[in-house]
């Protein structure tokens, strides 16, 4: 039986996102989408989390926070970049304080496109994240 | 007494955004709170130097994903004032309708987050379930749930058919009726009253002294609302600002509850007064390049926003600046947090309805 077939716990960090993707991440938890019925729990503690969902890009200020959260998560762990900003910097790629996508700081496993990313695609990203988690677990086990 | 410093944020369960406060405590009492900003700073205002003014509207919309429609509208209205563009009447009414729908959306979102912060997860779910209906209306009319990109300099990109407007109104009124039950829980539940009543009181004098805006100041008994200025067709709407006098966390909840009903009524009046018919002009494209400067004020769900735009006759604006409502409310928040119990901090912070991405841009 696969080890990570269901119930991933998720840690959400808002990089320098405009709130659009954050709100859509939260919308995934509410009645219309309700991912909690699949055991997906949004946790505030990095030590409990399997999947790190990052919305928004990295800047001078939050680069250490993202690194720190990633470091605290137990192995195996997966990073899902949600939205155009987290993938590449998006519309703000040319802003002076934006350094680019999350993959400049930590390894990203799944890229979820969209501005703002729709809840359906975020859920799809998490499901793909579970597969990546399982793969990482097998490789280290 | 020994002092303890507790960091609040940037990653904290109560708020999805990175709000950062250093809370300095003596025992359980907060004696000082020091905010730190910059975690969401992107440098949006400076992007005018790199993005042409015609495209800058899409960037401005992304100041914040919650009031994105109003940010886009504020930018377009500013440019229209600089370029002396006469916006067709129907487009102005459509903007008002969308603006009020986004106010309902924002308030439902906030009421949900607020309920979650004081431990009512069920209410959170109910508010967000209703919010999804609003998002469906947005998606049907603009094509986007969060970022709508429907404003253009000179008008709006899409029309809404008269039959569809009637259907939207019917849907909103149905939602308003269903919302009454949720509002009743917020207003009458004894445990909510115990948790929020008398907590974080902002007196009328203090509200004036720290220059708070929006529902924050209306909950302290001051009847101020930028919409009363009458711009953007509000002069043809009959409404009174929603005012509560207690000034505590509960009063701020009640103001937003009543504003949901008020917005539905404003939309009803707007749809009633709007010129009807198919193929009416909704856009009047400007010619030439903008030159001049302007201040624009709007009433966003969180309060008054001020835009300053300066154009110098080239494709790129010289300066774009936004003073967002949360920025104006932060001094009030710091004032309220001082002296409260540590356990009340999340509620006080949430009742100002902070939008960090607006504040830091």
Short description:
In chain A, 32% of the residues lie in helices and 19% in strands. Chain A has 4 helices and 7 strands; from the N terminus they run βαβββαβαββα. In chain B, the strands form 3 sheets. A 3-stranded antiparallel beta sheet of chain B has the order 1-2-3, with no helix packed on it.
**Main beta sheet strand tally, sense and closure of chain A:** 5 strands, parallel
Mean pLDDT of chain B: 87
- CA-based shape of chain B: globular
- The helix-and-strand class of chain B reads alpha+beta
What would CATH call the architecture of chain B? Orthogonal Bundle
Structural domain count of chain B: 1
- Integer-rounded radius of gyration of chain B: 21 Å
Question: Which fold name fills CATH's third level, the topology of chain A?
Answer: Rossmann fold
Number of domains of chain A: 1
Task: Explain what the structure shows.
The complex is a heterodimer of chains A (141) and B (361). Chain A has 4 helices and 7 strands; from the N terminus they run βαβββαβαββα. Chain A has one domain (9-140): Rossmann fold, CATH 3.40.50.12280. Chain A is an alpha/beta fold and 141 residues long. In chain A, 32% of the residues lie in helices and 19% in strands. Chain A has helices spanning 20-27, 63-72, 84-88, 119-140; strands spanning 9-14, 41-43, 51-55, 58-59, 78-82, 98-100, 110-112. Chain B has helices at 53-61, 68-83, 89-117, 121-142, 162-188, 190-196, 204-209, 215-218, 249-273, 325-337, 345-351, 356-360, and strands spanning 3-8, 20-26, 29-36, 151-152, 155-156, 291-300, 303-312, 319-323. Helices cover 47% and strands 14% of the residues of chain B. Chain B is globular and about 70 Å long. Chain B has 12 helices and 8 strands. With 361 residues, chain B is an alpha+beta fold. Chain B has a single domain (42-354), classed as Cytochrome-c3 Hydrogenase, chain B. In chain B, strands 1-2-3 form a 3-stranded antiparallel sheet, with no helix packed on it. In chain B, helix 1 (53-61) packs antiparallel against helix 2 (68-83), helix 2 (68-83) packs antiparallel against helix 3 and helix 3 runs antiparallel to helix 11. The two termini of chain B are 39 Å apart. The interface between A and B is large, with 40 and 39 residues.
């Amino acid at each position: 039986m696969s080890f990570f077939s269901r119930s991933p716990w998720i840690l959400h960090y808002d990089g320098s996102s405009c709130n659009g993707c954050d709100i859509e991440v939260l919308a995934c938890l509410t009645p219309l989408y309700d991912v909690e019925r699949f055991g997906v729990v949004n946790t505030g503690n990095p030590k409990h989390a399997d999947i790190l969902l990052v919305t928004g890009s990295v800047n001078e200020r939050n680069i250490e926070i993202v690194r720190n959260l990633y470091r605290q998560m137990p192995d195996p762990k997966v990073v899902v970049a949600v939205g155009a900003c987290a993938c590449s910097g998006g519309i703000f790629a040319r802003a002076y304080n934006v350094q680019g996508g999350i993959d400049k700081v930590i390894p990203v496993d799944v890229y979820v496109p969209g501005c703002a990313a729709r809840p359906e695609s975020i859920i799809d990203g998490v499901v793909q994240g579970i597969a990546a988690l399982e793969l990482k677990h097998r490789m280290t086990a | 007494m020994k002092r303890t410093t507790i960091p609040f944020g940037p990653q904290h369960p109560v708020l999805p955004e990175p709000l950062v406060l250093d809370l300095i405590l003596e025992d359980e009492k907060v004696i000082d709170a020091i905010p730190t900003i910059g975690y969401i700073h992107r440098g949006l205002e400076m992007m005018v130097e790199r993005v042409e003014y015609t495209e800058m509207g899409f960037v401005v919309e992304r100041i914040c994903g919650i009031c994105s429609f109003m940010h886009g509208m504020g930018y377009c209205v500013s440019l229209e004032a600089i370029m002396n563009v006469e916006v067709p009447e129907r487009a102005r009414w459509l903007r008002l309708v969308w603006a009020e729908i986004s106010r309902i959306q924002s308030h439902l979102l906030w009421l949900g987050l607020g309920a979650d912060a004081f431990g009512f997860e069920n209410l959170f779910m109910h508010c967000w379930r209703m919010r999804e209906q609003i998002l469906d209306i947005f998606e049907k009319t603009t094509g986007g749930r969060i970022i709508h990109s429907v404003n253009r300099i000179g008008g709006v990109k899409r029309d809404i058919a008269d039959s569809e407007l009637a259907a939207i109104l019917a849907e909103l009124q149905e939602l308003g009726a269903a919302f009454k039950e949720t509002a009743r829980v917020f207003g009458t539940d004894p445990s909510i009253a115990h948790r929020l009543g008398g907590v974080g009181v902002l007196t009328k004098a203090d509200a004036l002294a720290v220059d708070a805006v929006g529902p924050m100041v209306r909950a302290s008994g001051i009847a101020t609302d930028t919409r009363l200025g009458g711009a953007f067709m509000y002069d043809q709407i009959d409404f009174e600002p929603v005012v509560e006098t207690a000034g505590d966390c509960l009063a701020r909840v009640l103001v937003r509850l009543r504003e949901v009903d008020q917005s539905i009524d404003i939309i009803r009046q707007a749809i009633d007064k709007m010129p009807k018919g198919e193929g009416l002009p909704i856009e009047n494209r400007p010619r030439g390049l903008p030159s001049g400067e302007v201040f624009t004020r709007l009433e966003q769900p969180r309060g008054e926003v001020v835009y300053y735009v300066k154009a110098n006759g080239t494709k790129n604006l010289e300066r774009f600046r936004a003073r967002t409502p949360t920025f104006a409310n932060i001094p009030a928040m710091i004032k309220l947090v001082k002296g409260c119990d540590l356990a009340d901090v999340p509620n006080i912070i949430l009742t100002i309805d902070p939008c960090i991405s607006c504040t830091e841009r």
